[in-house]
Amino acid sequence: MVHPLWSERINMTPLRKRMIEDLQLKGYSPATREAYLGAVCKLARHYRKSPANVSEEELRAYFLHVAQVERCARGTLKIAISGIRFLFAVTLQRHWPVLGLIRAGKEKKLPVVLSRAEVRSVLGCVRAPVYRVCLSTIYACGLRISEGVAVQVSDVDGQRKVLRVRGKGNKDRQVPLSEPTLESLRAFWKLHRSRPWLFPARLQPRSASQDGPVDTDNLRCAFKAALQHSGIKKTATVHSLRHSYATHLLEAGVQLRLIQEILGHRNPSTTAIYTHLTAEVRTQLVDPLQVLTENL
Questions:
Q1: Of 7, 50, 244, 257, which has fewest CB within 10 angstroms of its CB?
Q2: How far is Cα of residue 56 from the mean position of the Cα atoms in its chain?
Q3: What's the burial of 251, exposed, middle or buried (CB within 10 Å: 0-12/13-18/19+)?
Q4: Inter-axis angle of helices 74-86 and 56-64, to 10 degrees?
Q5: Looking at the predicted structure, is the pLDDT value of residue 208 above 50?
């Protein structure tokens, strides 16, 4: 049984309320706040008591359990570490040494990239117009899924052909809009003419919600169904559209520094991974490899 502190079925308690307020003061997005609270909820469920009563040794044992027994994915582990560290270090003001020891570790996995033809094939298999236009915009502007669904009508600047993106960590940026993408967005908006969302939830097939933008889980399901229908065997996700966008720009000769700005990457090394994925890089290796492997 989850400790009442983290149960959503009862009134909010002081500690939960304080953590939410601290997250708001730090400027964390609603999605991040929800993820951090979920991580703390899992800790409370594990020990069946308030996180405020968890000792440093118990916290150490918990993270060993999560990493070695549950074998959580790196992303899940990072959220758990960040959320729980925030509760203890910021809200509870417990600066325990164990909080400095916990690391999620590094992964060096190359992202899945679709070719231009594969992108067209997958998007062509998306049935619902609201999902198809949203996914096309995510690819055409290199957006994260959270950024794509959150596009508002007022974000589109048709005169300057740019899209305002409400980015990760509350950092806005502007990305260029091609003429076909701009026309697609204009035509789609004329179908519903509602504000503020360009992709409103009420246009989702069998939608139970009339408020807010389209649901990210529904968008992921639509992409997965389209990928299967296309017959493409790559383990692509919605985020693969963003990776594909960056790779295709690099192949077209766009400078890496500019791609970094468009994607909203703070660290150039994050963008540099796409240099390993371009067709041009592979082409440059053909002749040297031919020489190396002759007469083997």
A1: 257
A2: 31
A3: middle
A4: 170
A5: yes
